[in-house]
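Entry 14. Structure prediction run on the chain below.
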Amino acid sequence: MISKLILKNLYPYPFVFYMKITLNIFLIFLIPVINTIARSDSSTVFVMEIRAEIDPRMSRYVDLALSKAKDVKADFIVVDMNTFGGTVDDADKIRTALLNYPKPVLVFINKNAASAGALIAIACDSIYMQPGSNIGAATVVSGNDGMPVPEKYQSYMRSMMRSTAEVNKRDPKIAEAFVDPDVQLDSTIKKPGKVLTFTTAEALKYNFCDGEVNSIEEVLKKNNLDGLEIVKYEPSTTEKIISFILNPAVSGILILIMIGGIWFELQHPGIGFALVAAIIAALLYFTPYYLNGLAQNWEIMLFVIGVILIGVEIFLIPGFGVTGILGIVLIFASLILSMLNNYWFNFDFVRERDLISSMSIVLFTFVLTIILVVAGASKMLNSKRFKKIALAGQHINPVKNEVQNVSLLHKTGVTHTVLRPSGKVEIEGEIYDAMTNGEYIEPGQTVFVVEEFNSSLKVKRA
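Output returned:
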C-alpha cells in the first residue's frame, strides 16, 4: 500500500521532467526546420549598388532595380552603398522609393554615406557599416563652389532627414544635425557649430547603425538570411546601350552627325540620307538623356526650334542674319543643357566641371564638323558613289573637260540653284558644282568664275 502511494505521488514528476527534456530536444531540431519552411516562399535576397553620384541616372537605376526586385519576388533588398551624395531632388526620389518598398530594405555602407547618401541610408530599415565608414555631412551645397545654398534648401533637407528618421525609429534630432550645424546636441555627440558626421563606432553607439560588418555576407548572416539565393541587379542590354551612348565621346560623335547632316541637307536639299542620319543621331543623343531625367521636354524643343529657325533663314530670308544666329544659339543651348542636371536654367546643383565638360564637347564637335565639312565636303559631293545616291539622273559636268581641255576661269554663268554658299551654276549650257566665298546668291543670278579646282568652282556675283 505504501509503495503504491509513493509511486502514485512521484510518477507525475518524472513524467513531466522527461517530457520537458524531450520537448526541448525536439525544439532544438525543429526551429531550423521551421525557419527553413518560413523562408521557403521568400528565398531571394536582391542586391543593388549605389556607388556613384546621386543624380537622375542613379534615380533611374534605383527605379529599375526595385522593379526588377518585384519581378523576382525578392523579400529582402540589400543596398551596397558608397557615395559622397548628389542632388536633393534625386535623393528624395530614391528615399521615397525605398520607404514605400513593401519588403525589408537593408543598407551596407561600404566606406561612405555622405550628404544625399545619408538621407538614402536612413530611409532603409536597417543600417550596417563597414569599419572605417562614415555617415552624415548632409548640408546642401552648391555644385559650383561647394558653399551652402540658401536656407530654403537647407530647411527642406532638414525636414526630410527628420521625417525619414522618425519613420525608422531613429533620433530625428541627430538626423537633423547631419544637415544643420546649429542643432543643439550633447557635446559628447556633436561640437557646437559643426555639422554632424558619425563613424561606424559612433553610429553604433547612438543607434544609427544596426551592426558593424565587413561584407554583405555578414549582413545576411546577422539577419539569418545566409544560405538564401542572392540576385545581384545587372542592367539590361538596353540600359547598357544607353550608358554607352551617354559616354562623352559617343555623344560628341552623335552631335557631329547631327550638325553635319543638317548642314548637308540644307546645302543640298533632296539628298535625303543626310537628313535621315541627322534625325537618327538626334534620337540616339536625346533619348538616353531624357530617360535619365537630364534632358527635359523644353530643352529638346529648343533644338527643334533652332533647326526650324536656321531653315527659315536659309530658305526664306536672303543672307544670314539674326534668325540664323538665334537658331544656332538655340541648338547649342539645347545640346549643352541636355547633358546637365539643371532646372529651368537653375545651375545651383550643377558642378562647374560638368558645365565645362558639356560646353567643351559641343564646341569641340562643332569646330571638328566645320573642319571635316571644309576638308571633305567637296570631295564627297563629287564622288561617283555619292552622285549615284544623291544626283541620280542629273547630268553634271566636271569643271575641266579632259577631252576639250577647257578652262572656265573668268567665264560668266547663271546660278542654277541657290548658293548658300555652295550649289550649282550653269555655264555655256552645262551645270557645275560651285561655291561662293560665304556670299548668299539666289537662283537665276549672273556670276563669274574667280577660281577653279579639280571638282568645283568658286564664283562671285557679277
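The chain has four domains: 1-40, 41-232, 237-387, 395-461.
Filed with the rest of this week's runs.
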